[in-house]
C-alpha cells in the first residue's frame, strides 16, 4: 500500500483517533484538576502524530 499524503496512512488515522480519546478522557475527573499531568499526557499524545508526519517525508 502506498500513501500519497501522511494523512492517508492508517497509522496516522489511528494516532489521531487515540489522541482525540486522550483529550476527551483527560478533560474530566482527576486529569482536569492536575494541570501538569493533563498537559504532559496531551503533549505525549500530540507527539505521536508529529513523529508520523516527520518520518513520512521520506516515504
UniProtKB/TrEMBL annotation:
It comes from the Bacteria. Pfam families: 23S_rRNA_IVP (PF05635). Coiled coil: none annotated. InterPro entries: 23S_rRNA-intervening_sequence, 23S_rRNA_IVS_sf. This is Four helix bundle protein. The lineage of its organism: Bacteria, Pseudomonadati, Planctomycetota, Candidatus Brocadiia, Candidatus Brocadiales.
Amino acid at each position: 500500500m502506498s500513501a500519497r499524503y501522511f494523512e492517508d496512512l492508517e497509522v496516522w488515522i489511528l494516532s489521531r483517533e487515540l489522541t482525540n480519546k486522550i483529550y476527551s478522557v483527560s478533560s474530566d475527573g482527576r486529569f482536569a484538576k492536575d494541570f501538569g499531568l493533563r498537559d504532559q499526557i496531551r503533549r505525549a499524545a500530540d507527539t505521536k502524530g508529529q513523529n508520523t508526519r516527520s518520518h513520512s517525508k521520506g516515504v
